[in-house]
Design brief:
This protein is α/β, with parallel strands linked by helices and 401 residues long. The protein has 2 domains: 201 residues, FAD/NAD(P)-binding domain (3-Layer(bba) Sandwich), CATH 3.50.50.60; 156 residues, D-Amino Acid Oxidase, Chain A, domain 2, CATH 3.30.9. Helices cover 27% and strands 25% of the residues. The strands form 4 sheets. It has an 8-stranded mixed beta sheet with strand order 7-8-6-16-17-18-15-19, sandwiched between helices. The longest helix has 16 residues. The chain starts with a strand and ends in an 11-residue tail after the last helix. Bound molecules: flavin-adenine dinucleotide (FAD).
Length: 401
């Protein structure tokens, strides 16, 4: 039975596992730990699950990764989203799975070999179904693209979903798991055997297993346990544009301009658009990250380059039609997440360091549970924390991160 509650102050509780952070990553982790038979308590400082970075995301998922370690998490995760109700054992949750594909587009013919290489890497990683689409074929299939677009990679298994529904689905589908809202982790205690207790502002929980799923605050949680993790937090924004403009192609895929790092996709009542600024500086995480007054205009300008319908959409926009929100990407030295035990501190496990945590959450949570219960050897886990010490820290070349 799962239980989501705001607890009053409590005397010391005991759990097989404590998960810190109630975003989609932490909740999926709690789901899998509970399915492995562990009595699990998840601690979230905010009012509800899925309310910080997860709520700020564009809610997209993709299979198209060029690195094996990433594809090995992304592919089964997409499979789990496709069969979500069976996975969680409930029919009352609708994650609004929308598989209209990811389209990576360019107007530079010189980028064609890069696209070909990416597709070859996808295939080598077991990602099937990616197509290279060029010339008139591209415009026939995606008539909203401007005349300059010359080539794209497309995979129609990719798409987007409701992260709120998915997160609550994981929570409601859990077995023996309790989800404490409005409860803040303030410390982590160790003894000679490793992790022994988690301190919160409501009381302590005695446990031998903690999973750090604190999203942008993962580094702070690591420090509570005595671990200095090499993570960078970088603010990322997105804009929702309310529009019922006739030119808006409501059946379009998630469309990425490979030249200027911008993207857009249809959303109920309008569209989402954004760009990933490579010069955005590293900052401390915040619960209410500020947004830039010109972000929506800059995003529309960038996206409209290869998606000229957006000029029409933008023409009559009023201030109240635009909503900009922000959250954080977390980058590790090789830009891949960290999953599994920290190794330095017995019982301190990690599931953090994400710029793509939504799409990775189902399988990443399962991997945490598989390693914690001995079903998978951490040596066989390429996303183990010790890889940084082993010197295996090459960032991959997956598009748009
Ligand atoms: C603009 C933008 C667009 C994005 N688009 C996508 C996308 O399309 N697809 C995708 O896969 N990813 C996307 N991402 C990234 C994705 O949102 C994150 O990787 C993902 O949400 C991380 O989930 P999480 O559960 O790790 O973190 P969070 O959702 O941030 O959850 C962590 C939780 O930990 C809690 N917490 C922290 N410290 C404590 C404490 N001391 N005590 C108790 N609780 C604590 C926080 O309150 C928070 O709720 C995007 C991000 C942004 C900002």
């Amino acid at each position: 039975m799962s239980d989501i509650q705001i607890p009053k102050a409590f005397n010391t509780l005991t759990a097989d596992a404590v998960v810190i952070g109630g975003g989609i990553v932490g909740t999926a982790t709690a789901f899998w730990l509970s399915k492995a038979g562990m009595k699990t308590i998840l601690i979230e400082k905010r009012d509800g699950l899925s309310s910080l970075t997860t709520a700020a995301s564009a809610e997209c998922f993709r299979t198209q990764f060029t690195e094996q370690a990433m594809a090995d998490i992304a592919l089964p995760s997409v499979g789990m989203f496709e069969n979500f109700n069976d996975l969680i054992g409930r029919s009352d949750i609708d994650i609004h799975l929308t598989q209209r594909g990811y389209l990576f587009v360019t107007d530079e013919a010189a980028q064609l070999p890069e696209l070909e290489k990416a597709i070859a890497h996808y295939e080598a990683c077991g990602v099937t179904g990616s197509e290279l689409i060029t010339g008139t074929d591209l415009h026939k299939r995606f008539p909203f693209l401007g005349p300059d677009a010359v080539a794209a990679s497309f995979n129609n298994r990719d798409g987007w979903l409701s992260t709120h529904e998915a997160t609550y689905g994981f929570a409601k589908g859990s077995d023996d798991a309790t989800f404490f809202m409005k409860t803040m982790v303030t410390g982590i205690q160790t003894d000679a055997r490793g992790i022994c207790s988690v301190e919160t502002d409501k009381g302590n929980i005695s446990t031998r297993l903690v999973v750090n799923c604190a999203g942008p605050y993962a580094r702070d949680i690591g420090q509570m346990a005595g671990l200095d993790m090499p993570f960078r937090t970088v603010r990322r924004q997105k804009a929702f544009i309310k529009s019922d403009h006739a030119d808006l192609p409501a059946d379009a895929p998630f469309t990425v301009d490979l030249v200027n790092h911008s993207y857009w996709r249809p959303e109920a009542g309008g569209l989402l658009c954004a760009w990933v600024d490579p010069d955005e500086p590293e900052t401390r995480p915040a619960d209410e990250p500020p947004t830039d007054w010109d972000f929506a205009a800059e995003s529309i300008y960038r996206v409209s380059r290869l998606n000229p319908f957006l000029d029409g959409v933008a023409e009559n926009l009023k201030a109240e039609d635009v909503n900009v929100s922000a959250g954080f990407y977390v980058y590790t030295p090789d830009e891949k997440p960290v999953i599994g035990p920290s190794e330095e501190i017995e019982g301190f496990h990690l599931n953090c360091g994400y710029w793509c945590g939504v799409m990775m959450s189902p399988e990443a949570g399962k991997r945490v549970a598989d390693i914690a219960t001995g079903r998978m050897d951490n040596k066989d886990n390429p996303l183990r924390y010790s890889r940084f010490k082993e010197g295996d820290v090459k960032p991959g070349d997956t598009f748009l991160k």
